[in-house]
Amino acid sequence: MLKGIIGAIFLAVVCTCLYGQQPDIAAFFKEEASVEVIPGMFTTYRSNGRIYWEVPDSLIGREFVVTTTILAAPARPDRDMEKKFGYSGDMIGPVFFSFRKHGNELWMLDPQHERVIEDPEGVYAKIAARRGNERLYKILPVKAKNPESNLVEIGEVLKDFPLFTLDIVSFDLLIGTRLREKDCIKEIKGFDNRLLIHATRTYQSSSMGMRGKPVAPPYIGDWDTGICIKLLSKEPLDPVFANTEAYFVIDKNYFQGDQPADRKAVIKRWRLEIRPEDEEKYMKGELVEPIQPIIFYIDRNTPEKYIGCIIEAVRDWRPAFEKAGFKNAIDARLVPTVEEDSDFSIYDSSYPFISWKISGQNNAYGPTPCEPRSGEIIACHIGIFSSVLNLEQKWYFAQCGANDPQAWNIELPDSLQYEQIKKVLTHEVGHTLGLKHNFLGSSHYSIDQLRDNDFLSRYSIGSSIMDYVRCNYALRPQDKVDLTNRWVRVGEYDKWAIEWGYRIFPGKNVAEREKNRDLWNQEKQKDSSLHFSGGVDVRAQAEDLGNDHVVVNAQGIENLKYLCEHPDAWKVTDKTSLRVLQGRYEAVLNHYKQWVRHVLSHLGGKRLAETEDENIYIPEKAAYNQKVMNFIQTYVLQPPVWMFDKTLTTNLEIDGSREFDRFYEELMSEIIRSLQKVGETENACEDMLSVDDFLESIHNGLFTEWDDNVFVSDARYKVQLLYVNKLSKLLDRSEKVTSSRLLVSIMQTLNRMKEEGLDYSHRITDPVAKKRAMFLVDSI
């Protein structure tokens, strides 16, 4: 008994001595003249130019996420309009840290979550466990203690450590070297689960020469930034394992006992949870509101007339979440004023944000920053660049101008602009919900369905807005469809994807819920419109439309012809209209080439087999590829001179001859690449298009004048000569052609041209035609 009492006294004395090595926090600041105390997750103290955090023991071992938002960027002499980032509203991160106690120090650590040990027994699992799941960032000496907290000096870390600065993206932003002496922490605001820090940074660029660009002068620029340090949820979101490619994912190594690591992917998604009292209703199929809906806040710098359509773009995802069982799961609203909510800040990562950027960048973006434990999306800043409307009006002119004369206006009416902004935003919101591009989404509907207003009202022009499908170019000038049916909308695939990723399936644990998710999806995947493909399949192409590229793209080209032959579509009245119409003309050329490429991809192409087929891929067969060859004869080998007519190009101050040469240089290179693909695949299986079939079709389509003994037009002659030169080049060592079979066929084709060209030159009486034929023969 006496020994026990003595031991207890000794222990108490030792503890008192150890604790006595550090003053309490009140005593630490006793001598300071003034101390600013900022309550919050970490009580923050500012005193004598220093900043301290009081870190509660309850937060030791918890994880924190750091995001940095650019509030104001300097005027930069080297500002590159093609760069997406470096604007006000851009969010950088997330990055993560945690604290661990180690004697009289707090260790700031980088938590690692790429390894998950599910069963600790066994050789592989034990080896993985020895590695640990943390890396050391910083060691912070404890300056003072309270019974349940530790005081550390953090000011220099906040100012200088890359975790809290723009240094981690300085190369991407090309902002140079930070002038540390100019760093300034302007304001700190504390909340129960986060800290907001307003800081200015100064960076000095150096003169760097970029190839093809003048050397930019050096400059010093101030960057106004907002840092949000937020406490992550104590319990990670239940992971959803990716057995579909619909979602962006994070990869992890899972260890189970003696088994080697199993690589698994976890999808990225927001935390949508239901209240306990709603669980029974939810499982019965009733719609319930999530505890925390996804609310986007819209930049007040956004032009007022677009705010309504941006809200609509976000709300367009509501039906998809209703499929998943959630009511009012997603919304958007304007950023509140200070009077409406003094705590709101655009750099508070609690608030998803949509920023409007004044820039020549013709784009928008929607990131999916997630936390590494479970793939939970924890912060989001969507960016829209004002010039995206410039790109949209060119697309709409080329794709729907034949059907809608409003597209001919130099400034499109608001009704069209609203739909364009809405389409762009709905797509980007889809990314922020976790969805990847599904380029199969535009491939399901026939040309007749794409012209049927009732069908389009129900299904849109594709099954997914996550495809790169823009407008309904299957429409003819006389077709009547609603304005909203000329654009892609949230489709059946998108609704399936949100339901697959977000629905809470029944089950007593993660494994059981995942099993029920898979069983549900097996039935759903019997519908081919819900399938995913990222690009191997010839149907999964960007910027395409319809289930028959030959038919739909032929209509697209006919629409371009309709536009080029209507002078009212090309009225130049001033310099602004000239600039706009020059851009639209460029879009017409690019669309033509793009639609030809879609069709050419079927030569030597393949498509994914249906799930019940024993093969993985099915090669494109000769029957369809013969349609492709007929398309080439009509739309490539017969030059579209209407697109280079002098009446049109002179009006636009464009050199039509030069544009023709560029146009056909690209197209003929594509033809030759297609020939090589046919050579690689002609023996893949039965009923394939052969190299000889390809060459025969091109020859018959390109040299008909020789058979008919008529004059070859200037445009046609240019195409003939370019084709001969491209074929001849395949025979020299400058091109890598491994197939001797292909080389032999090319040699035979060139010899045939030589013989027929000589014969034509002898029969034709026109001296120009005779001279051209001999020049072509001599070039072989």
TrEMBL record:
Q: Which residues cross the membrane?
A: none
Q: Keyword annotations for this protein?
A: Hydrolase, Metalloprotease, Protease
Q: What is this protein called?
A: Zinc-dependent metalloprotease
Q: Which InterPro entries match?
A: DUF5117 (IPR033413), DUF5118 (IPR033428), EcxA_zinc-bd (IPR032534), MetalloPept_cat_dom_sf (IPR024079), Zn_MMP-like_bac (IPR034032)
A matching Pfam family: DUF4953
Please report the stretch or stretches of sequence annotated as the DUF5118 domain. Answer: 35-72
Q: Which organism is it from?
A: Bacteroides vicugnae
Provide the DUF5117 domain boundaries: 89-274
EcxA zinc-binding domain ranges (all copies): 411-707
GO molecular-function term, one example from the UniProt record? metallopeptidase activity
